[in-house]
Known about the structure:
- It contains three helices and nine strands; from the N terminus they run ααβββαββββββ.
- It is an alpha+beta fold and about 180 residues long.
- The chain folds into two domains: about 1-30; about 30-170, no CATH class.
- Strands 4, 5, 6 and 7 form a four-stranded antiparallel β-sheet that branches. Strands 3-8-9 form a three-stranded antiparallel β-sheet, with no helix packed on it. A two-stranded antiparallel sheet has the order 1-2.
- The model is unreliable at about 1-55 (pLDDT under 50).
Amino acid sequence: MKKHLSIGLAAFAVGALLSGCAGGGGSTATTAPSAPAATSAPASSAPATSAPASATATGLKIAESKLGPIVVDGKGMSVYYFTKDTKDSGTSACTGGCLTAWPPVTTTAAAPSAEGITGTLGTITTPDGKKQVTINGMPIYYFEKDKAAGDILGQGVNSVWYLVAPSGEMITTAAGS
């Protein structure tokens, strides 16, 4: 009798977990669809291993781009703001499928490090307990299609993703300008 009860409870727990995962994006339905639409092939996100696989900031610094100086991580990968985030809210509006295309820049350090950045650095806690880096109270992200240092392919995607200037300001100039 106990064995049947244990199996039943385990099946119930698995079912509840799976239904929770499927419904988790309901409260952010307006956010999740906009980012995957920006990626023409979200199924290819698994093989993409450059920036997303290394979503831990190794110290932020400044790099030159065709749009002027931008914030990059220690490997030279560009970082972006999401305009749907709310400054100083302590949370990210990018959830679910959005995080596949736009992985958060995280740190394991007590305080994020930066070289030459005048914006204020901080962190927020992600739903999975990691520390996402913020600049001037806004979370920062990588773009999965940026494969090499200096890539800025996420600039202006869906008119909601923009590079970060060393001052912490959002760079809204088009990448082709």
